[in-house]
Structure formats: structure tokens, C-alpha cells
Amino acid sequence: MIAEDTVEALIEKIFSDEANVFAVLDGASVPGLLKKLYQLEPEYICLLRGDLAPDMAEVAPYLVRLEKDGELIRWILENGWGKHWGIFASGYGDIREMRGHFRSFLTVYDESGNPLNFRYYDPRVWRLYLPTCNSGELKKVFGPVVAYYLEDEDANTLLRFELNSESLRRRKFVLR
After folding, report:
1. Which residues have CB under 8 Å from 116's CB, separation 6+?
2. Nearest-angstrom CA–CA distance, 174 and 44
3. pTM here?
4. 87 φ/ψ angles, rounded to the nearest 5 degrees
5. Where would I find the beta strands (DSSP E) of 5-135?
6. 59-91 burial by CB neighbour count: b if 16+ within 10 A, else e?
7. Three-state DSSP state, 114
8. Which ranges of 52-134 does DSSP label H, i.e. alpha helix?
């Protein structure tokens, strides 16, 4: 668990845009995610389509709308910060629009055209991928997103990525 003052600092930064805040959480990395979602009843939706078998539902990625004063954001930060549970995004879309946006990244194709699962919601992947994007890719990746927030390699640092004109702007916030 992380310190209360660190949780407060994270919440202030993640909710700084006056936009809706979402998390894309990895069911495979977050122990008891579905149970917590059922218990707290936030607005959430699976990023995978269709009826999933129970074992697949447990490990699927979920999009969750977060509230600044909600119990879920505190639970995620207190228990999962530094454990690559997922990424945060602020944006002005509703959960359906954001689902469509985030679903569009789940499958990528290799040079031969073979489909691959892209686990972009792992912050270790997203923080390496975003700086490699050209301006067209950045426009697609951001779409309705104002900013992405995620843990750095050092969990004492929050990264904020935003689109500045046609280039990526990365800001670091040291939490302690």
C-alpha cells in the first residue's frame, strides 16, 4: 500500500482536467477486479465483445469511469499503484464513446498481417509506445482523450502524456 498523501497527490493530478476520468484495468493483473466492480457498482464495461466465459471475464480488460471522491479510485491507487494494473485517461466522451476508442487498440498487426493482442493498458507498454508514435498515430491514440496518466518505472513518479499541437508532451510528477 502507498501512503495517504501519495494517494491524495495522485488523485489531484489525475482529476486535474475537469473532464471525465477513466481507467483501463487489466483483469489479469488486478486480483479480484470483477468482485470489486460488482461490489462498488461504478460505471464500467468490458473492452471485449460478447458473452465471455467466466475464466475469460476474469482476465479481460475493463473500462471504468472513476469519481474523484469514489471508493474505487482509492482502492486502485492504494493497492495497485506501481503494480501495472492499468492506465488512466481523462476525456470528454461518455463510457460508450471511450469504449469504442479503447477497443480500437486491442488488436494490432505484424508485418505479415497477422493479428496480435496489444496490451497497451499495461503502463510498462504504454509509456514506451507513445513516444514512438508519429503525429497521425498520436491523433488516433488520443482521439477523445485529453491526457493519459500512468506510473513510471519508479512508482514514485506519475507520467502525464498529452497531445500538444501534433506532438507528444510528457510531464513527470514526483510524488515524494
Report:
1. 107, 108, 109, 110
2. 30
3. 0.96
4. -125, 160
5. 20-26, 44-46, 61-66, 86-91, 107-109, 115-117
6. ebbbbbbbeeebebbbebbebbbeebbbbbbbb
7. coil
8. 54-59, 71-80, 95-103, 123-129
- Tens-digit pLDDT profile for residues 1-18: 788 999 999 999 999 988
Residue 69 carries which DSSP code?
Answer: T
From the list 126, 61, 66, the residue with the least C-alpha distance to 95 is 66
Tell me which residue of 83, 118, 85, 88 sits closest to 103, measured CA to CA: 118
State the Cα–Cα distance between residues 6 and 139, nearest whole angstrom. Answer: 31
Q: Which of 146, 3, 11 is nearest to 73 (CA)?
A: 11
pLDDT tens per residue, range 127-137: 999 999 999 99
Q: How far is CA 50 from CA 56, 101, 125, 134, 150, in A?
A: 11, 17, 26, 33, 28
Domain boundaries, given as residue ranges, for the chain: 4-174
Q: Do the beta carbons of residue 19 and residue 112 sit within 8 Å?
A: no
